[in-house]
Amino acid sequence: MITVNSHSDYAIQAYRERLLRNRDALKEDYLPQLKQGGVRLEVIQVACDFFTFQGLDLNDPSHVIASFDSILVSIQDNPEDFLLVTRNSHIDELESSDKIGFLLSIEGAASIDERLSLLRTYFRLGLRSMALTHNPRNIFAEGCVENRTTGLSRVGKNLVGEINRLSLLLDLSHVNERCFFETLDIYQKPPIVSHSNARAVHDHFRNLTDEQIKAVAQKNGVIGLNFMSLFTHKDIKQASVEHIIDHLDHMVSIAGIDHVGFGPDFTDYFPPPDNQVYVKGSENITKFSALRNALSNRGYGVQDIDKIMGKNFVRVFREVLEP
Question: For the whole prediction, is pTM greater than 0.85?
Answer without folding.
Answer: yes
